[in-house]
């Protein structure tokens, strides 16, 4: 037991003690020392320049040390040397991590190029900062590596461009990307609702305000001006969404269609998506509302709507909307005829 | 689960584009290496390295051009590009009629732009490797002309003005042939994939 611990201690000691001065452990210790010094400098209120300089030296030493350690210990998963990638990642973290906000984007885009620099600089610049000219074989490898890192960087940029598309047009996420030749979504993600649902909610609130609890004859007159109500509804949605404008608002079209249903009406509210969609003809979201006349004393109950007219004095309108907004393929005007 | 949270944070990723582009690049590099090896009498290894470098350079410059141009296009055209990237189809808007023509024009432009980049890239690469062959020694005009007449008399090459005594440089011809071969192969692969629907799309 004691021998086992002694063995571990010896191994640890060998790992931590640099075999000679020119070794990766020295650089890591320099990084640690520099970091402690920067902490000390901050504690004694040195100038920000001093603190920043010490921290910078610490980060650079950390990047070099970790890369060196990976390289000398021959840590090569799948035979690929990862040392420049890790060093490049550490440097990118240091350079862009302090930016705040959306720092991940420049960091990831710069990462392959930074890794290329970690490979290229030791072969192009010697220790006394004079230019070395490597052999033609090495130069060819460097050119190839540079083009490869440029390609990796472009892929990262493309990824972030897709994310900015999704920010501009959030409803795109609600559609299936299975047909795409470019993108893939890892299954099992929670898929957001299209923004049309919000439009329908706003439209429903507006309808409630305008017809619910109003005298039935005036509601029927309100319905007569169907085209006018449609335009008023669209204007109201635009005004409501204007507080958080999104590029995709222009691609949603709101429509409504009253259908007679016994004594009252069935109001169909549609949010029609006219933008990019996975299926031919796009899709729309449908909200179904029942607009029924009710007697004065039982405004909140709709069961009495079947009561024969004539016994009641005044009838009032009652609007009840379904909560769900089923998604249908195609265009509603193809089903219900043009207005 | 933190791992699922991370995955949903990632959102839509261009994984298919990366896989597909890697495969197409391999096809193009192998084909172009064969053409360059035959035309320029290179060894196996240098022809592979040249073809790989040129194709990677052209591809990444192409990505940059796409990303820059896409950001400058009008919104209605941008949304068509988004539609194509995400759903593999164009949707009905004011650009719908012009799109096939635009795609063909863009492909032709891409071919010539790629050719120019590869030719320039090959020149730079050879210069970088210190293998740029010394510029053909300027032949005195008299001798040049007499050579042309000589050759014309023997009915060999109809030497065009401005092309030098040897006609177009063998390097330019080789890169043109290599580019044509890889574009044809890529186009064929894309057509087959779109027709057959390999890989589920």
Question: How is this structure best summarized?
Answer:
In chain A, 52% of the residues lie in helices and 13% in strands. With 339 residues, chain A is α+β, with helices and mostly antiparallel strands.
Overview of the molecule:
The complex is a heterodimer of chains A (339) and B (201). Chain A has 10 helices and 6 strands. Chain A has 339 residues and is of the alpha+beta class. In chain A, strand 2 and strand 3 (264-273) form a beta hairpin. The longest helix of chain A has 33 residues, at 136-168. The relative contact order of chain A is 0.07. Residues 298-302 of chain A have low confidence and may be disordered. The model of chain B is unreliable at 136-140 and 156-163 (pLDDT under 50). The longest helix of chain B is centred in the middle third of the chain and has 30 residues, at 99-128. Chain B is mostly helical. Chain B contains 7 helices and 1 strand, in the order αβαααααα. In chain B, helix 5 packs across helix 7 (170-196). The chains are: A alpha+beta (339), B mainly alpha (201). Strand 1 (184-185) of chain A pairs antiparallel with strand 1 (12-13) of chain B.
Which secondary-structure class do the elements of chain A indicate?
alpha+beta
Unreliable stretches of chain A, pLDDT < 50, 5 or more residues? 298-302
Number of helices of chain B: 7
Instruction: Spell out the helices and strands of chain A N to C.
Output: HHHHHHEHHHEEEEEH
- Unreliable stretches of chain B (pLDDT < 50, length at least 5) are 136-140, 156-163
Strand content of chain B: under 5%
| Percent of residues in helices of chain B | over 70%
Query: How would you sum up the global shape of chain A?
Result: elongated
| Average pLDDT number of chain B | 81
CA-CA gap between termini of chain A: 89 Å
> Number of DSSP strands of chain A?
6
Radius of gyration of chain A in whole Å, from Cα? 34 Å
The total of beta strands of chain B comes to 1
Average of the residue pLDDT scores of chain A: 81
End-to-end distance of chain B: 31 Å
Shape of chain B: globular
């Amino acid at each position: 037991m004691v021998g086992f611990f002694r063995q571990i201690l010896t191994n640890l000691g060998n790992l931590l003690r640099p075999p000679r001065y020119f070794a990766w452990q020295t650089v890591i210790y320099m990084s640690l020392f520099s970091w402690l010094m920067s902490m000390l400098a901050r504690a004694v209120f040195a100038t920000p320049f001093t603190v920043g300089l010490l921290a910078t030296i610490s980060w650079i030493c950390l990047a070099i040390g970790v890369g060196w350690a990976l390289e000398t210990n021959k840590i090569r998963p799948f035979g690929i040397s990862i040392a420049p990638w890790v060093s490049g990642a550490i440097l990118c973290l240091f350079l862009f991590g302090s930016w705040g906000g959306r720092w991940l984007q420049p960091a990831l885009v710069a990462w392959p190029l930074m890794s290329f620099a970690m490979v290229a600089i030791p072969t192009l610049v010697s220790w006394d900062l004079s230019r070395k000219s490597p052999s033609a074989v090495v130069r060819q490898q460097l050119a190839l590596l540079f083009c490869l890192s440029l390609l990796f960087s472009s892929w990262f940029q493309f990824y972030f461009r897709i994310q900015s598309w999704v920010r501009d047009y959030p409803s795109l996420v609600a559609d299936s990307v299975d047909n795409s030749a470019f993108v893939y979504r890892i299954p099992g993600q929670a898929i957001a609702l299209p923004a049309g649902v919000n439009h329908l909610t706003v439209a429903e609130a507006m309808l409630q305000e305008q017809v619910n609890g109003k005298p039935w004859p005036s509601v029927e007159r309100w319905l007569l001006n169907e085209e006018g109500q449609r335009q008023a509804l669209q204007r109201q949605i635009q005004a409501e969404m204007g507080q958080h404008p999104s590029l995709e608002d222009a691609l949603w079209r709101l429509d409504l269609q009253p259908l007679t249903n016994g004594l009252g009406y069935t109001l169909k509210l549609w949010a029609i998506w006219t933008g990019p969609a996975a299926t031919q003809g796009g899709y729309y979201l449908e909200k179904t509302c029942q607009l029924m006349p009710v007697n004065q004393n039982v405004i909140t109950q709709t069961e009495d709507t079947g009561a024969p007219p004539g016994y009641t004095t005044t009838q009032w309108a009652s609007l009840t909307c379904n909560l769900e907004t089923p998604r249908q393929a195609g265009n509603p005007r193809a089903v219900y005829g043009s207005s | 689960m933190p791992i699922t949270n991370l995955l949903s944070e990632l959102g839509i990723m261009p994984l298919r584009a990366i896989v597909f582009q890697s495969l197409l690049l391999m096809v193009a590099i192998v084909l172009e290496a064969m053409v360059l090896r035959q035309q320029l009498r290179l060894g196996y290894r240098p022809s592979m390295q040249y073809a790989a470098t040129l194709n990677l350079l052209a591809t990444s410059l192409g990505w940059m051009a796409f990303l820059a141009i896409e950001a400058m296009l009008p919104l209605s055209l941008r949304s068509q590009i988004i539609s194509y990237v995400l759903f593999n189809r164009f949707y009905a808007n004011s650009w719908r009629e012009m799109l096939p023509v635009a795609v063909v024009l863009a492909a032709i432009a891409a071919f010539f732009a790629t050719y120019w980049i590869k030719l320039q890239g090959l020149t730079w690469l050879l210069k970088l490797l210190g293998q740029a062959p010394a510029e053909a020694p300027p032949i005195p005009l008299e001798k040049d002309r007499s050579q042309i007449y000589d050759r014309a008399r023997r009915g060999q090459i109809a030497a065009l003005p401005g092309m030098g005594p040897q006609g177009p440089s063998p390097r330019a011809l080789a890169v043109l042939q290599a580019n044509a071969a890889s574009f044809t192969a890529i186009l064929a692969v894309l057509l087959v994939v779109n027709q057959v629907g390999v890989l589920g799309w």
